[in-house]
Amino acid sequence: MWPAPILELLATGGDRPVFEDGDRVVTASQMDTLVRRIAAGLRHHGFGPGRGVALRLGINAEAFAATIAAFAVGARVSGIPSGLAPGRVDHLLERDDATLIDDTTVADLLTFPPAAITAAGRPTDVARIIYTSGSTGDPKGCAQTYAAMSAAWAPHPDRWPPVIAELATRLDRYLVFGSLSSQVMLEYGILALTAGGTLVAAHPPSFPDAFVRHRATASVITVGRLHQLVRAQRAAPVDLSSLKALMVSGSPLAPGRLREALDVLGPVVFHGYGQTETGMISMASPGERFETVGRPPAVTDVKIKDGELYVRTPAQAGCYWQDPRESAEVFVDGWVRTRDLADLDDDGYLHLRGRARDVIIVQAVLVYAGPIERVLATDRAVAEAYVIGRPDDETGEAVHAFVVPAAGAVPDPARLRDLVGANLGTSCIPRTVTVIDRVPLAPSGKPDKAALGSSA
């Protein structure tokens, strides 16, 4: 049961380095002690199966140890999303009956003597709630059971699909940043440790300097940051000879951009496709089939229904936490409805063709247009509001808003951007707010967002 493979890896790893933070190097044995201390503290305070723990931690060895310890005692573990609007954190904790664990709390837990530890999670209990950005008002939580996490491929080399086995050979020094409770950051971190690599903390995550400074061989990167890295390397090249793998996360990478990245950075870009609800769906090796997002591994089932992609993965979430209505829309008879349009070619490669939902992906965060439009329309100067996404070199995609003024009023773009940020968080703030006389209409008579997009 999860996280038994990691507990075993740490308990038997001896002096092998597993976490590096500046001049501090933490061995497997030392990390094992940290995990056992924190787990003992959690158990002392009554944490165990069925109890909710919400993590808000930095990037350090203790944060990693606390994450593993929370799973080891069988708690329901979540990470507080960054950029939440004021008041959302308290609401989240109250709604989910979860206790906040921060760096100060972890310091107190480390005062307990290390004790023997086993994986206490129960298969059908929720192990992890992976929260979305909260752009719909409250963050949605993808609930993953201990059985599902135990079915994941990352800590089991015999389960690695071929492309993951190739990637694993490049994870000698895996650069971590942002939050270790991030689904993608933790998943590849576990893969790196299983492959014999070391997690290397980046403070702050500036690219490309972080790769040079930490001699990093691999990291996760969003489409926007990849564009920035390519531009920086063209303008002022630095020594990236240590770099072996960049795992692109978030929005799809356009074929032209992928070719450019490979030309500038070399054969290091692994691009693919996945969702919070499912984990990885497909991945392609560097230079493999530019126009696709790779081939789903054998353990992943895919089907196309009315042009929309449905998938089943071994470690997928089972529902949205405390949201039965949305769960019924997405989790259908054991399948996850991706709400992305796609098709498979004769060689089994997956092609994404668009979205069946009005969503924008900003720095790998899903942002929904509808809630932003509703917030903008609450301003007295706004009669109508429309939101679209456009490709963006910094963030992958960016939010752009169009507003029709109320009679006799003049909307203030700065005030409207602040209004969105205060209500929905920083990821939802429009890059631009454009005042228009009227919205263009499609032949159906409905607002034509495609026409707005061509004018953004």
TrEMBL record:
Superkingdom of this protein's organism: Bacteria
Q: Name one Pfam family in it.
A: AMP-binding
Signal peptide span per the entry?
none
* AMP-binding enzyme C-terminal domain residues: 372-446
| InterPro entries to which the protein is assigned, alphabetical | AMP-bd_C (IPR025110), AMP-bd_C_sf (IPR045851), AMP-binding_CS (IPR020845), AMP-dep_synth/lig_dom (IPR000873), ANL_N_sf (IPR042099), ATP-dep_AMP-bd_enzyme (IPR050237)
Where are its TM segments located? none
Q: What sequence ranges are listed for the domain AMP-dependent synthetase/ligase?
A: 13-101, 120-321
Q: What is this protein called?
A: Class I adenylate-forming enzyme family protein
Q: Which organism is it from?
A: Actinoplanes sichuanensis
